[in-house]
Amino acid sequence: MSSVTADLLAKYDRPGPRYTSYPTAVEFHEGFTPERYLEKLDQAAANPSEPLSVYVHLPFCRERCSFCGCNVIITQKPGVAAAYLEDLEREIAMVADRLKSRTRLVQYHWGGGTPTFLSLEEIERVFKAFADRFTFEPGAEIAIEVDPRVTTHRQAELLRRLGFNRISMGVQDFDTDVQEAVNRYQTFEQTKDLHEHLRGLGVESINFDFIYGLPHQTPESFRKTIQLALELRPDRVAVYSYAFVPWIKAHQKAIHLEDLPAREVKLQLFGIAHELFTADGYQQIGMDHFALAEDSLARAAREHTLHRNFMGYTTHPARDSVGFGVSAIGDLGGAFAQNTKKLNRYKDALDRGRTPIERGFERSKDDEIRRDVIQSLMCNFYLDVRAIERAHGIDFASYFADSLRELDEGPKIHGFLARTPEAIEVTPPGRLFVRNICMAFDGYLKRHEGETKVFSRTV
Ligand SMILES: C[S@@+](CC[C@H](N)C(=O)[O-])C[C@H]1O[C@@H](n2cnc3c(N)ncnc32)[C@H](O)[C@@H]1O
Ligand code: SF4
User: 205-212 and 312-314 as β-strands: parallel, antiparallel, unpaired?
Assistant: First the structure.
């Protein structure tokens, strides 16, 4: 990673999508209506034996971390969550009625916000609302995001009893100067205590989230943070590049540009995480994750069979996913569908007996082809060209002539990828720039040229 010069870094550090979906959410529009979503649900009901993924958004947090880019509602008022759960139950009933006997789940994910903002009774209530209408396939991934600062032992025990087998903990950074700069005070002991408790309960897979590029991070401080993480040895870690998007998330203005590490330092921070994790039994997964080599994600990455959806990396994706709760995104019958982000609109829609879908996107054949290419490169740093040709009936070289020229004139010269007529492979130094490589296959970016305030920067 150190072989990348400052000039090259400056050239590649430009605004670009993170490709949690293709096309990205920026393309979603209101022409995709609640009525169209109901049609999609009805079509989905016609394949009752096909498994589904379900995402549930639980948006509440007690306080805001100033770096946060998630869809969050900050509140300490009692009763706000209970009112939301009533609405959520109405949405579950409405959608499950349409899905009829399409009930088998292979992936079930509670994200936020902070799902453990909810009380024990509220957690049980949400779980029951789904368990009454859906069933879990053997080996289903049942996952939740938790904040160690607010998650109690009793909540952990309840989650285990309900069947959650993947728990992801937000950590971000253990350094107190960094924590102060981002308004997130979390001691190493809080993280260690919850981690040990979850281990003792026999939770199958534990993940820690870190962010690099936060204010006041230095190579020395971040090295210590990663060393502390290694003492605990979670199964998986995410090391996210800080997405600084104050034009979208106004509260990020509390973070001063001059306190952020320079791009060379930012790259160094990721290099440190990469060096320490890979030296200690972890394997890099996609752009920003690491997993112990024996973990199923690591195995899938070695076999080039990793997938990714809005819930993260997965080994067993369902073709269709359904999102519940404010801002949740589903992917059903070749279309993305997103609920409104506003609590009052969410409630209003349900009061009127409508689904709270606000926007979405129906993918064309061209979108599907590009999506497969981008997904494979993002997950596996590898593209089987012949597999794309077979799956979509295209001649890759002519279909993507412009994209290939762009890659040959840039990333290939700089040693970021190698290609033959059969395959494209992202090289180890190119991995940090995989977003840039994928941008060559993006059919929508040209429209956003000149608009600087759409995406976060790629480095
Ligand atoms: C919903 S939170 C995790 C659960 C819980 N709310 C917490 O923070 O502990 C999801 C994760 O997104 C990541 N994240 C949030 N804002 C980000 C940003 N602006 N850039 C990069 N990663 C971010 C953090 O690592 C965070 O742990
Ligand atoms: S990072 Fe987590 S705890 Fe902090 S505001 Fe965002 S969702 Fe809430």
Answer: unpaired
